[in-house]
Amino acid sequence: MSKVAILQVGPYPAWDEGPLGEKFTLHRYFEASDTAAFLKAHGSDIRGIATRGELGANKAMIEALPKLEIISVYGVGFDAVDLATARERGIRVTNTPDVLTKDVADLGVAMMLAQARGMTGAETWVRGGDWASRGLYPLKSRVHEKRAGVLGLGRIGFEVAKRLAGFDMDIAYSDVEPKTYAPDWTFIADPVTLAQHSDFLFVTLAASAATRHIVGKQVIDALGPDGMLINISRASNIDEQALLDALENGRLGSAALDVFEGEPKINPRFLELDNVLLQPHHASGTVETRKAMGKLVYDNLVAHFEGRDLLTPVL
Ligand code: 8YV
Description:
Layout: E1 5-8, H1 14-23, E2 25-28, H2 35-42, E3 46-52, H3 59-63, E4 70-74, H4 83-89, E5 92-94, H5 101-116, H6 119-127, H7 130-134, E6 147-151, H8 155-165, E7 170-174, E8 186-187, H9 191-196, E9 200-203, H10 217-223, E10 228-231, H11 240-248, E11 254-257, E12 276-278, H12 287-305
Parallel strand pairs: 1-2, 1-3, 3-4, 4-5, 6-7, 6-9, 7-8, 9-10, 10-11, 11-12
Helix pairs in contact: 1-12, 5-8
């Protein structure tokens, strides 16, 4: 029996590509120089998409695949998948929740600490010889016992807040409603008020059309010249132009960012700033988590084509 054809939208580590390639015929979209011609050539056979969180599957891609049955996302975020088109066509969608939650939270907290204590600059201070020639590194502000705001207390936000509690921080959060699982933290419905009440504001919202630019000029100004914004969700949750303006003119103290509009080609204005910590969208990037994510992508595809229940369905 011939293998089911899958459109592979982005690369995976070898330990995922191996089993996927044995089980399915993989069409490697990301290696095509003319993607439209590629879809035209292979589109009529393809029954599944294996994609990554940030790459998703847009309307044009889904529409080019008349036999498409399932989209399996390597990532918890499925905002880049055109869910409306998938729903209309009865196409199933899966993601990789839970397995990455703690790694994403770990990186968010690490970014806060690294940025607050100036660790990137401190490393350069040592390596560049400034320690020996200029002496002590400039003093930074502390993190413990400060006020943290968590915008979106879902799985990842909850794990961030749990970690911040270990630093004796005063924790508040925004969400659509107060969470019964967060009795010790202050619920503040309005993001602007949350920002006013925060020294460090974490953005941990699942991105959607409704949350686009939820962190805009008002939230940024409320966080203020001594505040720090940490984004481990999606770039679309923040108005990036407003963020850049505020970082450039000191209306916002600093930022630590793992996600960017148009990544990996980020706005060059970020590179000119010394009050921002830049990370290459790697919050889920540990071997352990990526292996678990790859296994879920594979297991969901196999379950679907063997007629079994999906493990982590979105649709
Ligand atoms: C990426 C993510 O998917 O989980 C998500 O939504 O954005 C990440 O885990 C990861 O970079 C793999 O592409």
